[in-house]
C-alpha cells in the first residue's frame, strides 16, 4: 500500500478501491441469450438472469463491461 501511494506522487488527495467480489452478479444477461445458460435439476430447468462465473465467456464479458465503465477514469488509475 505504501508503495502504491508513493507511485501516485504528490497532489493526489484520494485513494479508492473497488470490491469486485460480486461483480459478475451485477451484469444482466440479454433475454434472448438466457436460454444458452440453461441447466437442468430434478426440480426443473433454470436459466441465469445475470452473468455467472462458470460460463465460458463470463471473464471476457466482465472485463469488457468494466473497461467500458472505467475508461473515463483511465488517466487517474494505476
Automatic annotation (TrEMBL):
One of its GO terms (molecular function) is RNA-directed DNA polymerase activity. PROSITE patterns: RT_POL. Pfam families: RVT_1. GO terms for biological process: proteolysis. Keywords: Endonuclease, Hydrolase, Nuclease, Nucleotidyltransferase, Protease, RNA-directed DNA polymerase, Transferase. Residues 1-78 form the Reverse transcriptase domain. InterPro entries: DNA/RNA_pol_sf (IPR043502), Rev_trsase/Diguanyl_cyclase (IPR043128), RT_dom (IPR000477), Viral_Replic_Matur_Polypro (IPR051320). This is Reverse transcriptase domain-containing protein. It comes from Rotaria magnacalcarata.
Amino acid at each position: 500500500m505504501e508503495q502504491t501511494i508513493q507511485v501516485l506522487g504528490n497532489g493526489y488527495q484520494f485513494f479508492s478501491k473497488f470490491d469486485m467480489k460480486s461483480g459478475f452478479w451485477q451484469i444482466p444477461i440479454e433475454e434472448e441469450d438466457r436460454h444458452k445458460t440453461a441447466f437442468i435439476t430434478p426440480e426443473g430447468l433454470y436459466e441465469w438472469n445475470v452473468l455467472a462465473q462458470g460460463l465460458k465467456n463470463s471473464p471476457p464479458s466482465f472485463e469488457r463491461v468494466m473497461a467500458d465503465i472505467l475508461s473515463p477514469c483511465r488517466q487517474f488509475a494505476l
